[in-house]
Amino acid sequence: xxxxxxxxxxxxxxxxxxxxxxxxxxxxxxxxxxxxxxxxxxxxxxxxxxxxxxxxxxxxxxxxxxxxxxxxxxxxxxxxxxxxxxxxxxxxxxxxxxxxxxxxxxxxxxxxxxxxxxxxxxxxxxxxxxxxxxxxxxxxxxxxxxxxxxxxxxxxxxxxxxxxxxxxxxxxxxxxxxxxxxxxxxxxxxxxxxxxxxxxxxxxxxxxxxxxxxxxxxxxxxxxxxxxxxxxxxxxxxxxxxxxxxxxxxxxxxxxxxxxxxxxxxxxxxxxxxxxxxxxxxxxxxxxxxxxxxxxxxxxxxxxxxxxxxxxxxxxxxxxxxxxxxxxxxxxxxxxxxxxxxxxxxxxxxxxxxxxxxxxxxxxxxxxxxxxxxxxxxxxxxxxxxxxxxxxxxxxxxxxxxxxxxxxxxxxxxxxxxxxxxxxxxxxxxxxxxxxxxxxxxxxxxxxx
Length: 449
What we know:
By secondary structure, the protein is of the alpha+beta class.
């Protein structure tokens, strides 16, 4: 087992990792930018190293600074959390070269699944259903138009190095294709320094359902059931839950088997998420694979009583998994509480939190690095916390979430709490009859004075 782990991240996920390390007796090193000097992950780690100014490019995204911090503190492993360096194959390779264990999959696995074209080709070979589309990257505009005509509109253009909805454009008719093609390539180039594009049939009114998988260094792969992430805005998830109110027992089994097949096809090591689109006929298609821990891993932890961060660390240390597939025992819902104004298009609302009171009680979990007096910096993701409510049934979990949201006090900045309160009262959400287009016509109403 490792003696000291450096957490190459910030905020709530860094704090989350520190907590598990403390429970299993591993020393921790926090890294931080000057903007995060007062963050709780810095306070609660055994050691902390400042790695640069507020800009992520000069701190959390600078491999040399992170490796220097690992070397001067004698860390023998690095946990990347999610975002930043978590899916950076080059960084994982640098860790290998310095005999520091990267807690995650191998560089080769990250590359294989990080490039969406390669991932799709790998899934086809493994016999996992994929969305119809181009075979490999689109060479030019003309080829794209030919494929779109063949598979039929609407189609979606996607950046091969994409993520978070960037470099994606839906095209409903041939006349729109050239303009959307140009916009998608420009956005992809700016975001990822890679404007490679591919094309897929656009699945209308789908559910976004992902399966948590876990694999060890001995070829064993298992799934930990699913999370429904269909409530999202501009491809950014807002609410996640497990189990999905949409899946039947039969479909859950089939999708779980497909997710395990996907993991075994690349001999996957560590935590990963196989993401699917499921249409109204309950046909499912592989979308992508995330080779890291997800923001919403907490939902899975609650319904199967399983510490996923501990499992990640054990796998990285060479301990085999049980190989057992898990299915939900309870129902859990997570609301992402962001420093955003939902009444103004979810615009960012950085600033100082003047008052903070987190809800509690049986079945209520809050993962957060925030407190009264904490300054939310404008440089990073706007997440303040994750509020997770767990109960025996979905109805009970929603009721518990309403109560918890009512208790949650955050003053000084605008937050998404009012949005979540309204969502929990929504008839479509309560009935479970929603898809990824839910937010297009959701009306939050007027802000209370």
